[in-house]
Amino acid sequence: MAQTEKKGGLLRKSSASKKPLKEKVVLMYDEIFMTEDPSKCNPRFWEELFLMKVYLEYLEGKLETLDGEELMKIKDNINCLFQHCIQALGEEHPIRVVNALQTLCALIRGVHQKNKSTSGFDIINMLVGFDKAELCMKNLMESLDSLLCAEGSESLKSLCLKLLLCLVTVTDNISQNTILEYVMINSIFEAILQILSSPLSRREHGYDAVVLLALLVNYRKYEVVNPYIVKLSIVDDEATLNGMGLVIAQALSEYNRQYKDKEEEHQSGFFSALTNMVGSMFIADADEKISVQTNEAILLALYEAVHLNRNFITVLAQSHPEMGLMTTPASPIPTTPVTPLGTTPPSSDVISSAELPLDADVQTSNLLITFLKYSSIVMQDTKDEHRLHSGKLCLIILTCIAEDQYANAFLHDDNMNFRVNLHRMPMRHRKKAADKNLPCRPLVCAVLDLMVEFIVTHMMKEFPMDLYVRCIQIVHKLLCYQKKCRVRLHYTWRELWSALINLLKFLMSNETVLLAKHNIFTLALMVVNLFNMFITYGDTFLPTPSSYDELYYEIIRMHQNFDNLYSMVLRLSTNAGQWKEPASKVTHALVNIRAIINHFNPKIESYAAVNHISQLSEDQVLEVVRSNYDTLTLKLQDGLDQYERYSEQHKEAAFFKELVRSISINVRKNLAFNTLSQELLLKEFSTIS
Asked: Rounded to whole angstroms, how far apart are CA atoms 576 and 233?
């Protein structure tokens, strides 16, 4: 018995004293981190290394533990590893290619972490060496381009895109990432387009490809000629543009569907009242990643496509089945098990279902409708900084659309009618509109509905002045098109007029608070000039003569608001303060509105007195208006149908730099080690031929 215990004790002692065995790949990494060339003792070192399963955490962690000086001592070995990775990309054996791609990811990220330190060594020199940088990076980009364009493994294509996204996003500010100079010189633009034009590749990699393109377009875009901007602006291939539109539509549709599911979930039970009060409260839970990360990246891609490429405007109206109503295919089988990188992409079933042929019984949709629905969700709550940025970008995209002649043509087309179910913020004083009661109308009606909804729901202490200005500008640009082309749109214009008058009322009620932060007279002037546009040119674009009469009725009915506005701006324009000039502009702009009020009010009072009526009905007021147009004198106001066109570089550069920075951080954060896991991936390459 004692002998057994002794044996047991010896065994315990022996096992405790043994050091844990290191994996062979770890031992090989350790050799690379020595100053000696690892291939001196083992000529097959590099060949063997790329047959080993990559230990990403160890390799990247090891790089991060070294300071700049220590890293410089092993610079030759790092250069050698980088060069052998590039050579391995040309190998026939896919396992070596997979391992080389993942090793490159770890190298780039690990070495870039050291670039933040005070050592100040050059990242390109550290990775490849100055003398070989141009040739090495050329070979790397050519290899990635070949892998992306080949008909081979979808898993390899996925890893190539991951590596490219890793390379693009290693710095928060992508314009400071000097490696991207080589991505500009050795373009992969055509490879990205090929992915987007092929249904299979698009289904597997479209999301990553679109995000990658959006980021590359933003590299030093205000400083140099970016080849990706030039090339994107002239793409005219229909399949490619439609493919890009489908990827964007699918990502936004997925967001809309998840929002709707959560909304329905929260509307049941005790918590529905609380949820209704704060709008989309669920954003704070696990879906935050979807609402913020996915859509900021994909929205940027949509913006760049709309802003840079006029041919893409046609894609906005390209019909496809309503994705939320589609049934998914019986067995969608993705060819790669690897989760697409970056920000959470839509699931494969959504993507494949969207490319089914149109069904006569299914409500058709298009990218613009999907985008409008998305906008109606994110614009509900602008208190959160990310959502504020998303809301702003939505309005910038709509601004570009509202300025485009072709976009306006299909927005106002009577033969293109859709039922657009926008999300409306729950409010105590109004009932939720039933989806089934929505009429089919030209798409411009949905855009106007969205603008009216925003105007009505954001009059609060933290007043989003910038968003309001953009909102009014969009309405103005649409009216300019209607006036120019004499489009008589059958729209409930009263809702817009009422919203605008209530906005003026809000500005006056909160004059002191708002003036401490904003020049409210800029916005007030824009609102007044919208009314001037209706007064001066309304007879050319309002649907019926009675619509024009109703405009006058609303101005007369709400005259107290205009009187109060005039009193306020007159007071400030006669004082020698900072608001003298902007207030006086509003004073002059009110001349015709005041003329209407001063002309018709006495007539209405006289009519009431003669007919012994204490309170006139709407019809009676309209009768007075119609019979007294002849004696009304209005002043012709110039420039009402003119506007300054959108310019990104001069006004929005700071916004886009910050937005791209935020997207870069999120994409990098989502490049987690588990998305680069080999276990499932290598099943595709289980044997080496």
From this structure: 49
The Cα-based distances of 533 to 472, 593, 643 in angstroms read: 13, 11, 12
Is the separation of the CB atoms in 315 and 367 below 8 Å? yes
Of 147, 228, 233, give the one whose Cα is nearest residue 185: 228
Q: Which residues contact 511 (CB under 8 A, 6 or more apart)?
A: 520, 568
Check if the beta carbon of residue 385 is closer than 8 Å to that of residue 458. Answer: no
Residue 486 region by backbone torsions, left for phi larger than 0, else alpha for psi between -120 and 50, else beta: left
- Of 318, 100, 335, nearest to 205 by C-alpha is 335
Strands (E), 402-512: 417-418, 441-442
How far does CA 560 lie from the centroid of its chain? 41
8 Å CB contact between 423 and 373: yes
Output DSSP code: residue 299. Answer: H
Non-local (6+) Cβ contacts of 520 within 8 A are: 465, 507, 511, 514
**Cα torsion 43, 46, 52, 56: sign:** positive
pLDDT of residue 384: 79
Please state, in angstroms and rounded to a whole number, the distance separating the CA atoms of residues 341 and 679: 17
Closest C-alpha to 119, from 168, 66, 175, 62: 66
pLDDT under 70 in the chain at which residues?
Answer: 1-21, 114-121, 267-294, 320-363, 427-436, 672-689
Among residues 12, 41, 36, 177, the alpha carbon closest in space to that of 665 is found at 177
Q: What is the pTM of this model?
A: 0.87
Instruction: Identify the pLDDT of residue 303.
Output: 97
Beta pairing partners, 373: none
Q: Where are the beta strands (DSSP E) in 471-595?
A: none
- CA angle at 395 for the pair 391 and 398, rounded to the nearest 5°: 140
Cα 301 to chain centroid distance, Å, stands at: 7
Is the separation of the CB atoms in 604 and 556 below 8 Å? yes
pLDDT per position as a tens digit, 136-153: 999 999 999 999 998 878
Q: If you search the block for the tokens 């007044």, which residue do you land on?
A: 528
Terminal-to-terminal C-alpha distance of the chain: 56
| 362 beta partners | none
Hey, what are 94's tokens?
A: 């896919």
Contact (CB, 8 A) for 15 and 7: no
Cα–Cα distance for residue pair 414/411, rounded to 1 Å: 9
